[in-house]
């Protein structure tokens, strides 16, 4: 029977080969002269599914802490899911994902997130979209209007500035659910270190205080050089304009700039010639509850909400979630217990997960058929889980 467990040091090379084939097949088979292991590779814990001693499929779990409705919760980032051709379509990946959820649950981690290679693949196992962002691309000159702002200066940053950057990141992410509490390791090994070449990092200071930063690279593409912003944060509107000025000031070096904003940003209302900017809305990572009762009890609820509802949760991967629960809310806290009562609401674990973080409202879920229940139950869920802006920006 397949066994999910940590990958020992002896199987590290096999693990790397599987991941390399899955994500960089164009690089060809590895050889003894391959480059040194990037620092980014060191982040996370390696796991695999073994069958008769053979490593069939692999993944990593990355420890995070994230903010949801005023509290900090542990979250496992599921990454590097890889399976070689000889192990595919035999149920190994499903077993791997189930094993990863069990591992998270045993470690009292109630939340899971991943970046999908195909949304419907992970959707069938209970993960659901939890965040969106807008990618903008334009000529640097289209942002020249931002030079009209006054004050401040640009400074070059490096890994030793991570605490200053972290303060800006936290201020920018304060209004968004799923903002991560970044660690020093994450800043040094994932944000400010590349898989190949390291990115540039610049900041905008006012009176010596960092108010914005951008981590970026410059790539030569078919249409010329492109400045590509990878990580961006600003404490206020003026600091955001300073970043636009920074992009504009590269007009002698690059042909295009490409950067992202949260889905609710007002950027297109700020740029005078917004028609010249290509803006594309992108769905982001996917999220799910690992342990429904534990996650619901760990959440803080609006103090004004009091009442209860019975929820029939469908979970195709975690049988401990696939049942009916009664959620009772009072004084900002929730209590969950299994029940044999008829459910007032039926929904999948993915829809419940979106409701949990505020990405979709109860009304929206009901409208599209992802939540079935009466008006009274839906109204209770709407008050217990008000819609909130989300932004999960980490790549893992």
From TrEMBL:
KW Cell membrane (keyword) present: no
Range of residues in the leader sequence: none
Keyword terms: Acyltransferase, Transferase
N-acetyltransferase domain location: 2-150
Stretches of the chain forming a coiled coil according to its record: none
InterPro entries named among the record's database cross-references: Acetyltransf_17 (IPR041380), Acetyltransferase_Eis (IPR051554), Acyl_CoA_acyltransferase (IPR016181), Eis_dom (IPR025559), GNAT_dom (IPR000182), SCP2_sterol-bd_dom_sf (IPR036527)
Pfam families: Acetyltransf_17, Acetyltransf_9, SCP2_2
Protein name: Enhanced intracellular survival protein Eis
Species name: Halobacterium litoreum
């Amino acid at each position: 029977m397949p066994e999910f467990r940590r990958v020992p040091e002896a199987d590290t090379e096999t693990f790397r080969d599987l991941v390399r084939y899955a994500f960089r097949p164009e690089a060809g088979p590895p050889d003894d002269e391959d480059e040194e292991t990037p620092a980014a590779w060191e982040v996370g814990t390696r796991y695999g599914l073994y069958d008769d001693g053979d490593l069939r499929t692999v993944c990593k779990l990355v420890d995070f802490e994230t903010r949801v409705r005023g509290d900090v919760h542990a979250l496992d980032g599921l990454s590097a899911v890889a399976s070689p051709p000889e192990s595919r379509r035999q149920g190994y990946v499903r077993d791997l994902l189930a094993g990863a959820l069990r591992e998270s649950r045993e470690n009292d981690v109630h939340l899971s997130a991943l970046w999908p290679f195909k949304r419907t693949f992970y959707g069938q196992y209970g993960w659901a979209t939890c965040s969106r962002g807008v990618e903008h691309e334009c000529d640097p000159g289209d942002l020249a209007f931002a030079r009209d702002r006054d004050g401040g200066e640009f400074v070059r940053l490096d890994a030793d500035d991570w605490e200053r950057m972290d303060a800006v990141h936290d201020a920018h992410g304060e209004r968004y659910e799923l903002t991560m509490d970044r660690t020093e390791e994450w800043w040094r090994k994932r944000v400010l270190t590349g898989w190949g070449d390291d990115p540039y990092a610049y900041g905008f200071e006012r009176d010596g205080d960092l108010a914005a930063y951008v981590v970026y690279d410059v790539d030569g593409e078919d249409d010329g050089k492109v400045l590509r912003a990878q990580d961006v944060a600003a404490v206020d509107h003026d600091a955001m304009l300073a970043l636009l000025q920074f992009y504009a000031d590269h007009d002698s070096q690059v042909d295009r700039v490409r950067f992202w904003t949260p889905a609710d940003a007002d950027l297109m209302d700020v740029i005078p010639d917004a028609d010249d900017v290509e803006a594309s809305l992108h769905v982001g990572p996917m999220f799910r509850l690992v342990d429904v009762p534990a996650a619901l009890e760990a959440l803080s609820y609006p103090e004004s909400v009091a009442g209860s509802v019975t929820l029939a949760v469908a979970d195709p991967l975690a049988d401990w979630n696939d049942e009916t629960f009664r959620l009772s809310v009072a004084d900002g806290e929730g209590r969950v217990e299994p029940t044999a009562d008829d459910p007032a609401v039926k929904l999948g674990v993915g829809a419940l997960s979106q409701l949990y973080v505020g990405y979709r409202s109860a009304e929206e879920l009901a409208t599209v058929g992802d939540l079935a229940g009466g008006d009274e139950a839906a109204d209770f869920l709407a008050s217990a889980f008000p819609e909130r802006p989300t932004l999960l920006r980490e790549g893992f």
